[in-house]
Amino acid sequence: MKAKLLKSLTNRGLINRNMGKLQKKITVKSSTDNLAKVREFTRSNAAKSGFDDDTIGKIILAVDEACTNIVKHAYKYYPNGEITINIDSDKSKFKITITDSGSKFNPNEIEEPNLSEYHRKRKVGGLGMFLMKKLMDEVKYHTLSKDRNQVVLVKYIK
Amino acid sequence: MADFNVNVRGVGSVNVIELNGYLDAHTAPMLESTFNKLIEENNFRVVVNFETLNYISSAGLGVFMAYVETMRDNKGDIKFSNMQDNVYNIFDLLGFPMLYEFFKDESEAVEKFNEQGLNK
């Protein structure tokens, strides 16, 4: 029971069991109004991991793009859904896990854009996914139980 | 929490859009309204001055992609100036330098329009 409570508190970012590790969590409603809050949460925690400003900027943009996709595609602009962002980092990597309960979103159905075709056809969607892959070292999607979706973004700490 | 402003001013036959702050999915509709208004008033020659823009996401870049063809079909264009490196890098990642003109200074972008003739 005690172990379970400890795990729960740790997962919720309320205690930090291991020195040198960072665990933080924020939950926001699925409105684009909250993107600024999400960026600030990401910025302050990425800065604690010792990244340079350029890399912090890349991580912030990748998280913004992931949350924007959730607002647009998973919740289809319904503003009262929840987006939960967990940050876990250690000496080797900075991991952001973003979870939502919106409709399922299959990233494999999105083709890697040919950029000149993209501009020619004025296709505007799909750029966020393309950017996330360019900006981060790992981008993975998971479907969880209870109809939840999860995207995991990782930046290695060199 | 929208920390974003758009200002439009005329420089001869060119309209300069000054962007300030953070351009994301929340603030992009403000820029869309600006472009819609310019088009309604038959202003198709646009320079976007990025000097005080700190941040852009794909939602912001999408606005330029959505309007550039209308401008070009009407003998105008969207040209970019005064971009900070971190903002330029995102345009670069998405292939914009192949298809849009970037200038160090707003006056160079305005001058480019003037060289192309004053016909609207």
The secondary-structure class of chain B comes to: alpha/beta
Radius of gyration of chain A: 16 Å
Q: What is the N-to-C succession of helices and strands of chain B?
A: EEHEHEHEH
Instruction: Name the pair of protein chains with the most residues at their interface, and give those residue counts.
Output: A-B, 30 and 24 residues
What is the overall silhouette of chain B? globular
CATH superfamily label of chain B:
STAS domain
Segments of chain B where pLDDT lies below 50 for 5+ residues?
A: none
**CATH superfamily (homologous) name of chain A:** Histidine kinase-like ATPase, C-terminal domain
Q: Mind telling me the C-alpha Rg of chain B?
A: 13 Å
CATH topology of chain A: Heat Shock Protein 90
CATH class of chain A: Alpha Beta
What proportion strand of chain B?
25-35%
What structural category arises from helix and sheet content of chain A? Answer: alpha+beta
In the CATH hierarchy, the third-tier topology of chain B is known as: Transcription Regulator spoIIAA
Spatial sequence of strands, sheet with the most strands of chain B:
1-2-3-4-5
- On the 0-100 scale, what is the average pLDDT of chain A? 86
Please provide the ordered H/E string of secondary-structure elements of chain A. HEHHEEHHEE
- Order of neighbouring strands in the sheet with most strands of chain A: 1-2-3-5-4
Discrete helix count of chain A: 5
CATH architecture of chain B: 2-Layer Sandwich
CATH architecture of chain A: 2-Layer Sandwich
Structure description:
The complex is a heterodimer of chains A (158) and B (120). Chain A is α+β, with helices and mostly antiparallel strands and 158 residues long. Chain A has helices spanning 2-11, 35-48, 53-74, 115-121, 127-135, and strands at 22-29, 82-89, 93-100, 138-144, 148-156. A five-stranded antiparallel β-sheet of chain A has the order 1-2-3-5-4, with helices on one face. The termini of chain A are far apart. Chain B has a five-stranded mixed β-sheet with strand order 1-2-3-4-5, sandwiched between helices. The termini of chain B are far apart. In chain B, helix 1 (28-40) runs parallel beside helix 2 (58-73). Chain B is 40% helix and 31% strand. By secondary structure, chain B is of the alpha/beta class. The radius of gyration of chain B is 13 Å and the shape is globular. Chain B has a single domain (4-115), classed as 2-Layer Sandwich (Transcription Regulator spoIIAA). The chains are: A alpha+beta (158), B alpha/beta (120). Chain A binds chain B through residues 32-37, 39, 54, 57, 60-61, 64-65, 68, 71-72, 115-116, 118-119, 122-125, 127-128, 130-131, 134-135, and chain B through 1-3, 22, 24-26, 55, 57-59, 61-62, 65-66, 69, 86, 90, 93-96, 98-99.
